[in-house]
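Box 3.1 — From sequence to structure: Luciferase domain-containing protein
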Amino acid sequence: MAAVLDQGVKNFTDILTNPNSPSKLSYLLYPGLLITILILPAYRFVLKDYHVFLALGPGGTPKTFPGYLRVSYLRLFTISDPFRPPSLAETVFPTNGYLRQLPQRSGPRPTVAGIAPHRQLDQKCTAELHHVLRDGLHKLAAAFPSLIRKGSSCFEKQGLALFLSACTQSAPPNDAAHPGFSHLNPTCQDTGEICHLHAMDSSMHLTLHPLDISIVLSAGWGERHPLAGKYVHGKELLPSGFVMVYAPRQESQVETVMEIVKAGAWWVGGVDLAKANGLGGDQ
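Predicted structure (token representation):
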């Protein structure tokens, strides 16, 4: 068998290197063979990569081949290290974050893939635990009806998301509801989206203060989105503080995730939900 393969390789090499080969048919096939050799591996890679894109489930990008090509183009602009927090720029105010510390997440980080969608591939929670997490978001919105509203994610055009209410977004800087804040930090076309939950993997995306991102990363609870803070053709695709928070694996971890959500509300809207009684929370 090895001898047959070796002879086949030799014959093929002769065709490529000797245009005067007596086999005119072989000579005529030369361009087609060359194109096949060059294109077939690329075709197989694209086909496999396209199916990986489809397997990530619904997201902000249409599940079509043009959608895949768009995401593939955006790979050229991704950040080099999703586990390195953004720098604390001089324009960031306040300079302190919301979180003081988080319990360390045990075990290795989950495998994460994609850009749009950007999803957690393993270490997913159970359907029951997903319901607990989703219920926690509903309860948070119900506890602060004049501060938070529910809707579909502006980033992904689907999925449960929490937003600042209209009255919170229009509040003037440095008023009683936002002490010490010089401005709000709007997200996704100024909608004030605080977070959104992914039904497929129970992970979340939300926007945080740079120092809070550092705490989330160091505690093993998340990573930055590949396009966080990146500009393409003069347009910022996502806020620099846009992060994924991993799915909780047990019910006690839901509390940790919800604390990170509160940090998102604080950064996006200047509202400390832990101290919000009398500022929109139910009495």
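Summary of the box: The first strand starts at residue 112 and ends at 114.
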